[in-house]
Amino acid sequence: MRPSLLKSTAELLRRSRGYASSANPERKVAILGAAGGIGQPLSLLMKLNPLVSSLSLYDIAGTPGVAADVSHINSPALVKGFMGDDQLGEALEGSDIVIIPAGVPRKPGMTRDDLFNINAGIVKALCTAIAKHCPNALVNMISNPVNSTVPIAAEVFKKAGTYDEKKLFGVTTLDVVRAKTFYAGKAGVPVTEVNVPVVGGHAGITILPLFSQVLRPWTMSEVSCKSDTHDPSKNATPASNSLSQEDIEALTKRTQDGGTEVVEAKAGKGSATLSMAYAGAVFADACLKGLNGVPDIVECSFVQSTVTELPFFASKVRLGKNGVEEVLGLGELNDFEKKGLESLKVELKSSIDKGIKFAHGS
Ligand SMILES: NC(=O)c1ccc[n+]([C@@H]2O[C@H](COP(=O)([O-])OP(=O)(O)OC[C@H]3O[C@@H](n4cnc5c(N)ncnc54)[C@H](O)[C@@H]3O)[C@@H](O)[C@H]2O)c1
Ligand SMILES: O=C(O)C[C@H](O)C(=O)O
């Protein structure tokens, strides 16, 4: 059979089996770094997402095995593996969302910035290919240091003439996942009744959880892989008043050091992979829902921003058909949070500047 006929037959089959509709159109998701510690469980979770019709798994090695394995799962997404530079273009072609967990992870004693020298080049090369092969895709950047890799991506896209600030996201969902879990554990409240905006960036003190705004989920109907629907009328739960300032300060530090806690526990075998895959899948699911026109999808993300004087900043973002629909403000901060906000700006600015400088080749 001719390849074009094969393709249209497969598409017809999928549609006739009810996998795509006008509300849930065909969606292609590409994962770059799919054979890695995050990439593999993330590939599994995206294969389970019913909004994905085509899943493209790319890495420099190991993807044929991962793709063959994941492809046997009886969910709708058609899985294809791609390996090496020669196949990157095909992997990206037609993608609606590109998720990037490619790059090296930390070992004990390292900061995320210590990864810059290797990961900056990887991200620059991958984003150059995205600009060429799927310039309209939403990009979910996981590779560290996120505070620098997102500005690198922006500069690469600007140079290629494809930059759209609505379509570039630093994935900071794991900070939110941790803040919710740690808060619920300490306050003794069900984790499903907790939501914590985490703002700033994704490294050390640049991670600022706003525990004064501990909210009931924004009408989250299910916990797993569901993004939150924002309802500003739902305000602080009584639980937000139940912890002492000392507890809140300890929870803030634990959230900021959450990545290091995992790096040390893994003792040289990498950083968070499973919780990150979960967080990455939650964020990608939110992006897919936004693209599909589901209203009021809100997640925290590190995006181009005017919330502060810094060009990129993580805060709550409303997602829509074009990516970022609205960057939401910080809300009211208490004195502790105001101090945290001022202290993080110097480090965050320096990481952003470092990324921009690298992208310009200086
Ligand atoms: N944003 C976050 O919250 C967060 C959380 C955890 C980890 N991370 C970061 O994610 C990255 C990946 O972590 P991991 O634990 O999966 O690492 P890993 O080493 O297990 O996997 C990385 C994968 O990237 C692949 N890779 C390397 N260069 C590539 C290229 N040019 N193109 C495509 N693939 C390439 C490798 O072959 C490997 O399979 C690290 O930078 C880590 O710091 C971010
Ligand atoms: O801590 C790391 O190096 C990985 C990641 O950024 C995390 O927060 O777990």
TrEMBL record:
<feature type="binding site">
    <location>
        <position position="112"/>
    </location>
    <ligand>
        <name>substrate</name>
    </ligand>
</feature>
<keyword id="KW-0560">Oxidoreductase</keyword>
<feature type="domain" description="Lactate/malate dehydrogenase C-terminal">
    <location>
        <begin position="232"/>
        <end position="358"/>
    </location>
</feature>
<dbReference type="GO" id="GO:0030060">
    <property type="term" value="F:L-malate dehydrogenase (NAD+) activity"/>
</dbReference>
<dbReference type="GO" id="GO:0006099">
    <property type="term" value="P:tricarboxylic acid cycle"/>
</dbReference>
<dbReference type="InterPro" id="IPR001252">
    <property type="entry name" value="Malate_DH_AS"/>
</dbReference>
<keyword id="KW-0816">Tricarboxylic acid cycle</keyword>
<dbReference type="GO" id="GO:0006108">
    <property type="term" value="P:malate metabolic process"/>
</dbReference>
<feature type="binding site">
    <location>
        <position position="276"/>
    </location>
    <ligand>
        <name>NAD(+)</name>
    </ligand>
</feature>
<feature type="domain" description="Lactate/malate dehydrogenase C-terminal">
    <location>
        <begin position="172"/>
        <end position="216"/>
    </location>
</feature>
<dbReference type="InterPro" id="IPR001557">
    <property type="entry name" value="L-lactate/malate_DH"/>
</dbReference>
<dbReference type="InterPro" id="IPR001236">
    <property type="entry name" value="Lactate/malate_DH_N"/>
</dbReference>
<feature type="binding site">
    <location>
        <position position="106"/>
    </location>
    <ligand>
        <name>substrate</name>
    </ligand>
</feature>
<comment type="subunit">
    <text>Homodimer.</text>
</comment>
<feature type="binding site">
    <location>
        <begin position="142"/>
        <end position="144"/>
    </location>
    <ligand>
        <name>NAD(+)</name>
    </ligand>
</feature>
<feature type="region of interest" description="Disordered">
    <location>
        <begin position="225"/>
        <end position="246"/>
    </location>
</feature>
<dbReference type="InterPro" id="IPR010097">
    <property type="entry name" value="Malate_DH_type1"/>
</dbReference>
<dbReference type="InterPro" id="IPR022383">
    <property type="entry name" value="Lactate/malate_DH_C"/>
</dbReference>
<dbReference type="GO" id="GO:0005739">
    <property type="term" value="C:mitochondrion"/>
</dbReference>
<feature type="binding site">
    <location>
        <position position="59"/>
    </location>
    <ligand>
        <name>NAD(+)</name>
    </ligand>
</feature>
<feature type="binding site">
    <location>
        <begin position="33"/>
        <end position="39"/>
    </location>
    <ligand>
        <name>NAD(+)</name>
    </ligand>
</feature>
<feature type="binding site">
    <location>
        <position position="119"/>
    </location>
    <ligand>
        <name>NAD(+)</name>
    </ligand>
</feature>
<dbReference type="InterPro" id="IPR036291">
    <property type="entry name" value="NAD(P)-bd_dom_sf"/>
</dbReference>
<feature type="domain" description="Lactate/malate dehydrogenase N-terminal">
    <location>
        <begin position="28"/>
        <end position="170"/>
    </location>
</feature>
<feature type="active site" description="Proton acceptor">
    <location>
        <position position="202"/>
    </location>
</feature>
<feature type="binding site">
    <location>
        <position position="144"/>
    </location>
    <ligand>
        <name>substrate</name>
    </ligand>
</feature>
<keyword id="KW-0520">NAD</keyword>
<feature type="binding site">
    <location>
        <position position="178"/>
    </location>
    <ligand>
        <name>substrate</name>
    </ligand>
</feature>
<feature type="compositionally biased region" description="Polar residues">
    <location>
        <begin position="234"/>
        <end position="245"/>
    </location>
</feature>
<dbReference type="InterPro" id="IPR015955">
    <property type="entry name" value="Lactate_DH/Glyco_Ohase_4_C"/>
</dbReference>
<dbReference type="Pfam" id="PF02866">
    <property type="entry name" value="Ldh_1_C"/>
</dbReference>
<dbReference type="GO" id="GO:0005737">
    <property type="term" value="C:cytoplasm"/>
</dbReference>
<protein>
    <recommendedName>
        <fullName>Malate dehydrogenase</fullName>
        <ecNumber>1.1.1.37</ecNumber>
    </recommendedName>
</protein>
<comment type="similarity">
    <text>Belongs to the LDH/MDH superfamily. MDH type 1 family.</text>
</comment>
<dbReference type="Pfam" id="PF00056">
    <property type="entry name" value="Ldh_1_N"/>
</dbReference>
